[in-house]
Amino acid sequence: MKNSISRIILTLVVILLVLAVLLPLISYPRFVGAGRERSKAGDGTGQGDAESAEKQTPPEDWFISQRVTHGGIPMGAPERAAAQAAVLAQAAEQSNRPLAVARWRFVGPTNIGGRVVDIAVDPVAADTIYIAAATGGVWKSTDRGARFTSIWPATNPQSMGALLITSNGTLFAATGEANPGGGSITYGGGGIFRSVDGGATWQRVGLTNSGAIGRLVIDPTNPQRIFAAVTGRLYNPGGQRGVYQSTDGGSTWRRVLAGDNSTTGAVDLAIDPANPNRVFAAMWDHLREPDLRTYGGLGSGVYRSIDGGATWQRLTNGLPVASAAIGRIGIAIAPSNPQRVFAIVIQTGGLFQGLYRSDNGGESWTQLPNSSTLSGAQSTYGWWFGRIWVDPSDQNHVFGAGVYLCESTDGGSSFAGQFSPHADDHAMTWDLKVPGRVYLGNDGGTYRSDINGSHDQWTFA
To answer: What pTM was estimated for this model as a whole?
Structure first.
């Protein structure tokens, strides 16, 4: 008899435990993600796609809720938490009013910053740089990065993608981070903003439905001509994706290169400093869904224009052919020899595909020897980086982004790792006014080197 009662009690306990796990999942509505639409890119307006995307329920809430302990957020939990907070606030007010009304004061730590996705060096003002924080707007330093001040209004979109500063000091900030994250979430923006007073005031100048923008480049001979690599919304196909051009200093924008399908946007750009009519674009076919990330596709590839963006050609002579296995691509020109162009290619799954080099302006490409240092730095999520940089004064001095920074002194044939900076690199920019000075942006903030980034010697800014 006692054994029977024990078994009944045990069964009831198991049933109650199962219900405790299942009820939150049942009560929380699942997001029904948009299917992977693969229609041909439109005429560049993207108006219909953008409106459709805005009407869909954002997947982020569902995505977060499924990663909360016990599988979800029970119905009514936020309201109960708010009521509990109100009771605690009232109790604190009654028991210790000075403590209840006191403001929080930041006390540390001060030795680490947030993720920096881009850096712009002022071409005129000494020791002045601007950085774009992944979800923290734009910051300015006038002392080589020792101290930073926020110059970004709280009312602007806080997620950042790219920065650009012209020869006369006009500053452009493209919102929406193009690094998509794995288990984490990155956020979209609200277009491109322009400042003509060093960041004191900002004006939105276009591409409001762009979602994310990976790069901005400018014609060095004509500051009115600017290109934007619009990556698009991470969770929704369509909208404003591709390469856009402005010929009036950013006041208006026109799409000059559309992706092969509705999930392909542009993620990187490089412009020939000796012949600004030659422009390279890295296109990236990818989409994130609540339960799936597809960070590659047939639309990924390298394109080149030799007429200032009027027409484009997909480059294939030595580069990987179009494939569902091709993911993010980064591209860079050697300023001291613009005939030399590099492309780093990441597989859809995140592994390193290869580093390619052209020594004839993109006509043909050679896959460089597979460096275990460079491939290892990509880990299994190379789409988090996808960047390559070339020393402005030395075509053989090359850096690759990764979990750790990779440096080559032989034109990309071999690499050595640098481990003193924080992990996960996203930005590198040289200060052409000061020989040897270069800034690095990564998941830990901003670093500076005054010996051209060599010997793994960096100063945390």
So the answer is: 0.79
